[in-house]
Amino acid sequence: MKWTFVITLFVISIISRISCDSEDCHNINEADGELTKSQCAPINRSRRQAPGGPLQLNVDDEDVKLFLNEALTEVNASEEPDYSIKEITEATSQVVAGRLVKFTVKLLSGENEVECKFEVWERVWLEDGREVKINCDNEKHYKLKQKPQGKKVRERRDTLVGAPAEIDNNDEKVLSLLSTNLKRLDTGSDSALELVSVDKITRQIVSGLSYKVKGTFKNGELTPYACTIDIWNRPWIEGDDGTQIKAECENGVRLKTKRVKRSIRPMSPHHHKFHSKETSELKAREIKSEVLFENFVKKYHRRYGNDLEHKMRHRIFRKNLHKIDMLNKHEMGTAKYGITPFADLTEKEYLHKTGLLMRERHENDLPNPLAEIPDIDVKDLPTEFDWTEKGAVTSVKNQGNCGSCWSFSVTGNIEGLHAIKTGKLEAYSEQELLDCDTTDNACNGGYMDDAFKAIEKIGGLELEDQYPYKAKKQKKCLFNSTLSHVKVKGVVDMPKADEIAMQKYLVANGPISIGINAAAMQFYRGGVSHPWKILCRKSDLDHGVLLVGYGIKSYPMFNKTLPYWKIKNSWGPKWGEQGFYRIYRGDNSCGVAEMASSAVLE
């Protein structure tokens, strides 16, 4: 008998320090979290890993062990005798609509051994979006839940934005800043204040950064005494004015900076201010990224397991800020890119959220028939067209913790075709495809054309309510042919890279399943997206979505128009424009016309 308990707690976002791909791997440097290349043993794969699939984690990773120990603390609070970890046999991480981490672990309870499967699903944009499930072969049943998040209930890394936070007493940046500025304090003698030992350092994000250093200091030959040093650092202000320092020591002694007579000599081009300008700008950017990162952590309830993970995620976040700047700087449309729930993910992690399988076609594969494009003059096409306004598009769905975008693209296409044909809009089952389509890879990615053929072979699609979505592949196909509501008799492909043909087919027939490069979607906030081609290559398709309409955005003031496609995504209504994405129409942006197809209904 299996026991299951669900606990929502502060879970470590596990990232493997060794992630191998063929004979190469990337190691995370323990010191600074940088990625470096090294060699790994070759991995034998039975099939090519699809975007949306899980990544193997290093089972010896300290963060993996730390997570399990924290989870077991919750378990052992309700279990006699206590469990202990004997061996971690497998660990994987998958980025979908959030992050999914799975472990297989052997636990010891006294002399008895039990195998357990841990599953962590993290959705940082939801207030209670972190959940841990543990299933073991045991006769007992447990269900543990997180305590309510109230004002008085706070755990680590859930501090107020802007509040002082304790940092490492050996922080090199602070100690360097302290050493440089201590000599500016007026001690009343020729000897400068010197640091003996540090008791505590706190950092507070204000207009700049404010540090408090509590410790023991000495002045010349005098007996060391306790002081609290306040440092206010604003690196964008040049010279000494950018850093203010004062001290309050025992017996009420207060020290301020010395008064320095300003020189009336003109500054030389070699003056330190000229040399420090670039450094100051760099520090200002670092402070800005720290402020934004702390706001991100608070807004999306992001919690990290230790300082190494926190620093690594901040480093990734900082790099993503640069990507956001690049997207905004080179945006040729009106899209706005900014900080989203995916802003602390690497590119590789983000790609595993999508789920479109791009496999090579072989010579023996029969090509799909080309769609019959209606003979409509371009001038006769409507200026704007939207199937969502014509009752042929269901509400935005959410693929959740599963790389199943391909199935949502497919059901969306069939939902639209059936609604146009019968006048009845029905939501069909993606779960049926995950369970019954043996060609595609369920939560590990898929291919829309193959899914259409699978539906034909299976015998149709059930309603979503009859075969509800579980965001995972179940043990067996539960399709009931008597409950089938729609049947497919084939699939057709649109002419490649022909947006006019797509426009005609869309108007005459219904929504179209397409593959797209989702690079610009990671930070998309709204508007008509038109990224530089080098930032969103048409050859790198990694996400399956649904084309539902098109239009033109006009800007009379600038004598400018932006034709666009309207796309339905499967990341829930909180993403993008209520779950939709607009992208420039006319130059095959992000490969929007590279992989377009549609089912043919019976």
UniProtKB/TrEMBL annotation:
Gene3D superfamilies: 3.10.450.10, Cysteine proteinases. Residues 49-137, 159-250 form the Cystatin domain. Belongs to the peptidase C1 family. It comes from the Eukaryota. InterPro entries: Cystatin_dom (IPR000010), Cystatin_sf (IPR046350), Papain-like_cys_pep_sf (IPR038765), Pept_cys_AS (IPR000169), Pept_his_AS (IPR025660), Peptidase_C1A (IPR013128), Peptidase_C1A_C (IPR000668), Peptidase_C1A_papain-like (IPR039417). The keyword Kinase does not apply. One of its GO terms (molecular function) is cysteine-type peptidase activity. Pfam families: Cystatin, Inhibitor_I29, Peptidase_C1. Residues 1-20 form the signal peptide. This is CLUMA_CG014251, isoform B. Residues 381-600 form the Peptidase C1A papain C-terminal domain. Keywords: Disulfide bond, Glycoprotein, Hydrolase, Protease, Signal, Thiol protease, Zymogen. The keyword DNA-binding does not apply. It comes from Clunio marinus. Residues 293-350 form the Cathepsin propeptide inhibitor domain. One of its GO terms (biological process) is proteolysis.
